[in-house]
Amino acid sequence: MLHITVNFIFFKEEVATRCERLLHEFSGLVHPNHKLMIDVQSRLAEAYGSGEEGVGPSMDDMTRPMLQRKAQACQQVRYVVHRKETFTKCYAL
Predict the structure, then answer these.
(1) What whole-number distance in Å separates Cα of residue 44 and Cα of residue 23?
(2) pLDDT tens figures, 60-90
């Protein structure tokens, strides 16, 4: 966990780029549906299209691959959240 914090603090690059780097670094170590990966995916989806300096490109500046990546990140987060909600409801019964 400390390594991740250090990455976010010391890299002087956009948040979207850092998130992509973290997802790549941890893809072989952590399950894709792990909370850590979903948190990074969520942050990536927020960063793409934000248009804020140091965060990510604006929606107008995004290329087709960037838009597809944003959609992919949103779908992954939605899938995990939906499964968690379904499991919670079933467990409560």
Answers:
(1) 10
(2) 888 899 999 999 999 999 999 887 766 565 5
Q: Are 37 and 22 in contact (CB under 8 A)?
A: no
Residue spans per domain, the chain: 2-92
Q: How far apart are the first and last CA of the chain?
A: 35
Question: What length is written for the chain?
Answer: 93
Cβ partners under 8 Å of residue 69, min gap 6:
20, 44, 48
φ and ψ at 15, to 5 degrees? -60, -40
Best CA proximity match to 19, nearest among 55, 60, 68, 72: 55
Q: How far apart are CA 92 and CA 69, in angstroms?
A: 35
Query: Whole-structure pTM over 0.85, yes or no?
Result: no
User: Which of 28, 24, 53 shows the shortest CA–CA distance to 41?
Assistant: 24
